[in-house]
Design a protein that fits this description.
homotetramer, alpha+beta, Thiol Ester Dehydrase, Chain A, two-stranded antiparallel sheet, 3 helices, 8 strands, globular
């Protein structure tokens, strides 16, 4: 059962991973082939140099992949992260982080996703890129 | 300049990534070939099923790798995470997470690390395993 | 110095990695933002079930990333693979493998690439997806 | 059904991935907790500088993980590589490559492995390190 309501997905993620709420994760748009998500910038995310810290970026990647799986399979599914691989490409600006997430594959037992992350108002080049796989319950 | 004082390394990480302090990261032991670190368990780390959430595990992996690089190169170095790959092996218990981190290589420009993570008092099998690379400044 | 001639890039790769020639690697198109490459199918690539084996797919990913770096930086550069991460999405058909490769970032010391691989004449969905980083000489 | 005969495992891999035979892959020792494998060095594996090329190293990692899964689960299992992540640590010598492979986890549906690779007669430090996951048939 597909889910298309960004807020419904966001609330499911808040319930599943309370930490996502505390770091300012938002689901903004849900399309057939991609989901747009965001982390609202806050001071405590900084690391020296005034940029968003790595744990926030990794958490955004993970929550965004979870969002597109919920969008595709519906709320019954309790996907569990199996593998996450992330490349950090440039220091993000001290600003909101935007993520665009796509499914690479959704199989019977595993889903594979890809996430490209940018700084809002930045230079247009990605800050980080992640891929991940999720185990789906039988 | 090698650093062997766990608290000194911990404080450098708290300064660099304030979020590490807020999620209860500790440096416990520093040896020539490995560093032992920990995340002190707290309720808000949970996800449904009573286990520590993925973002906490990823943050532990990243902070632990940073700790062994500080231990080896000293406080002058501002290593930046380049790549992090993590496999989630089993749901952690609702308990402290323990990490053992080793250097795979420390080169002139890149350092490579490996982290094995377990639940304290758990079944003795790893909860997650991560590898990562860090860019070292010239 | 940019290189735009597919055959010139292909020959540089054959010289650098003779094995690429022996497994039928070809550079087909070089664009500003992407490179199209191919592995010509041969019987000995098979694994049971009649599909192309994993080592061929990984070699295609690696050679394709090397191709886009040569296209962007020219023949003087001797990039060295630092990290490669690959997700196998479905069994390929017993047919040529096609790869589309993009640069995620080209920095002073590291380049990051992404490769999507499909079977020619297949179901249109990717067979595998890889990301990788390459160390660039000073 | 556990398999403890190195040659039996090697032959199963040769049957499954004929390319493994052609690149000189051998299974040398099978223990309860680890498998030792090797690639016999040959001229055509070289890349400029006289070292073994990346595709050979990746193929060794993949075949070695397959070997430990066969050793643990027996010949009935047709494990399929799901994810492979490899860090290249230093240029190998023009010599045999030795691999030590361990299981990180063997579950009902996924197995996770780790491989450390060295050059025979080299400086004792690893040439490459890989982790991977394999889908196990129901």
């Amino acid at each position: 059962m597909k889910l298309r309501d960004p807020l419904a997905i966001q609330n499911l993620i808040y319930k599943g991973v309370p930490m996502a709420q505390s770091f300012g994760f938002q689901v903004n748009e849900v399309h057939d082939d991609r989901v747009l998500t965001r982390v609202v910038y806050r001071e405590e995310m900084q690391r020296p140099g005034g940029t968003v810290s790595g744990p926030v970026i990794m958490s955004l990647a993970d929550a965004s992949m979870y969002a597109i799986i919920l969008a595709t399979l519906g709320p019954e599914e309790m996907a569990v992260t199996s593998n996450l691989n992330i490349n950090f490409l440039q220091r993000p600006a001290p600003a909101d982080l935007l993520a665009e997430t796509r499914l690479l594959k959704i199989g019977r037992r595993l889903a594979f996703c890809e996430v490209t992350m940018l700084s809002e108002g930045g230079n247009g080049r990605p800050v980080a890129h992640a891929t991940g796989s999720y185990a789906l319950p039988g």
